[in-house]
């Protein structure tokens, strides 16, 4: 009886660990061979010429990287939420991409603006939208 309970608990724990880590590892694997850039380089190469506030770009960039469990230096502005950042096949219904959506919704609520989030296709779209909106809110 005790052995059966222990086995059941181990199976549940194994299932939880699998459910939580397999999608993250598969998504991160997509970026394995991509050179890692530090944020200063990312900002200089992709956003400085647009006049976007560096601290806000970093906050948004980090928000995406942490939500998706992808190293900050591996993602690029052209990465698409429905392609490079999408959930791995078989894990579409339990994806932490929804955390990015929730963060976006919280930001929109703070600035009091309604935006069709389906129009945000890339990380660059996300960063530029919220930099523009937060600039208007000040």
Structural class estimated from helices and strands: mainly alpha
Helix content: 55-70%
* Main sheet overview: none
* Beta-strand residue fraction: under 5%
Spatial extent as radius of gyration: 18 Å
The structural domain count equals 1
Shape: globular
Mean pLDDT: 83
Measured distance between first and last alpha carbons: 64 Å
How many individual β-strands?
A: 0
Q: List SSEs in N-to-C order.
A: HHHHH
Number of helical segments with 4 or more residues: 5
Q: Give the low-pLDDT segments.
A: none
Overall description:
The protein is mostly helical and 138 residues long. The protein has one domain. The chain has five helices and no strands. It is globular and about 65 Å long. The protein starts with a helix and ends with a helix.
